[in-house]
Amino acid sequence: MTPTPSEPLTDRARDYLDLDSLLTDAERRTQATVRAFVDDRIRPYIADWYERAHFPREIAPQMGALGLLGMHLTGYGCAGRSAVEYGLAAMELEAGDSGLRTFVSVQGSLAMTAIHRHGSEEQKRQWLPRMATGELIGCFGLTEPTAGSDPASMRTFARRDGAGDGADWVLSGAKRWIGLASIAAVAVIWAQTDDGIRGFLVPTDSPGFTATPIAGKLSMRASIQCDITMDDVRLPADAVLPGVVGLKGPFSCLNEARYGILWGVLGAARDSYEAAVRYSLQRTQFDRPLAGYQLTQRKLADMVLELQKGQLVALHTGRLKDAGRLQPQQISFGKLNNVREAIAICRQARELLGGNGITLEHSPLRHADNLESVRTYEGTDDVHTLVMGQAITGLPAFR
User: At what angle do helices 294-322 and 83-96 cross, to 10 degrees?
Assistant: First the structure.
């Protein structure tokens, strides 16, 4: 008998190196809980959401109830879970769809982390508890139409209007590819000021703030990305994040997001690989299962090699993070390698599914399309290559 799409694979096909044995009981429980949530609340609906380019807003409080929003943060209603547990959750969510994992990343690793790490006590109490439950959604505005990989060249500017420390801020500029902006209650906006780059908490109902969803996407269709325009948005003096000046503020948040990505993409890769295994065992060609041919087995072996190597990279990176020893250039290693290999696995899986693989009945091509976005955001392949190059040689080569 061969497995149907709903039946489990053999242990060797599912986890060739028995990497589950490297996890603690608490880590396995977290992974199992999130996997069950994905099986119940995402898998049955994701093809429809993707086809309609629909983000299910109702899923936010469901994720909040599981402690997935800002789950690596402590206090203010956040779960305070380990880096490895957060990574495992990201992997399981992205096995459902990159767009749903991206929501958790934007909400927790970007918007909530910015407030938690750089905000005042009052700002934390105002925003974080309701963001942790999913009642309120946040977004993170760094990228601009002309400033993607080079955020230092951003043109968005915040000026003081008035005298003294109580003077208002007036914010003008544009941001692009900002996840969740059209449904967010608060935007973390990074802007130039006379004193350097600062972060601002901008209620999205502020006059002059406009978020417009980007249409016509071929990737991340079950997610929302927006253009933001800010036309003299007036903010009170205490809208600024007081804890940081300069790009180290947004970069510290991006590193949190990149860490989640290097785990998450392995979920898309694993789901695609497992779909290919099941399909090749069921699909008969020339009177025998497709899985019985040497070329098929070579492709499956290549997929599991890179998948499990990527999982080892992610787990080791997570252990370093939990130990407080993780460096940003090590996150670049995982983001560069795991995204690149995940795309290759998804494409190979699609190939094994033949013509049927281009339909939404099967997940690999959807995952591959999504990963084109993941490969671009939070640092392109080229940027992470140069981060690693500088770490290796001591010589910056960005310009």
Answer: 150
